[in-house]
Amino acid sequence: MTTVDIPTADGTADAYLVRPEGDGQYPGVLLFMDAFGLRPRIAEMAARIAERGYAVLAPNILYRGGRSPLVDPADLQDPEKRGATFGRLMPMMQALTQERLTADTATYLDFFAAQDGVAAGPVVIVGYCMGGRNALIAMEAFPDRIKALGSFHAGRVVTDEADSPHLGVGSITGEVYFGHADNDGSMTPDQIKALETALSEAGVTYTSELYEGSPHGYTMTDTAMYHQPGEERHWAALFALLDRTR
Known about the structure:
single chain; alpha/beta; Rossmann fold; eight-stranded mixed β-sheet; 6 helices; globular
């Protein structure tokens, strides 16, 4: 694993780049972090994917707000401090418009494709929390360069806004998987149904599952929202997606 800098139109995005040991050309996985940014937990997740034989690029998609670390990981275990941290990050999240994300994603994909050991061809994108929402937007913008999506405990995938991410699924040509958090105010049962309807009507190959008992953020072992059964279920689902789209 190395930390790399990716020049963008608006600055420099720091990122984790992980490749399996040994020579070879490994299929790519682009990993979009949750709101709390690049930190040891994201590095662990990237390394676990790489162990399956993939090259992984995990950019700091909130780089306009500063280099990593964006938070003190110790604050994420305390629900009150976690809430305060989230409030501080909210302006950074709001500043990441769909236009900026699309431009950034093109840069990430170009950078990734130019790295030694990364196989040519479309990548799989994986996203957590806000990263899951943004990963969907990225796949909609680059259906020829992103062949599959794994989205976990994503929020605001369905909104009342004209540019709600679920309204753009018609451009998708690959497979998508959504693992929804239970009792999630940012992705309610009605919103999940609206997403599924949009995917079905667009003819997208998809799986949409509710992780019963798993709260928003269930994959993140370093936060107060961690839920071990949900995390384990997510790994099984993600690795199955990677295997069938390799």
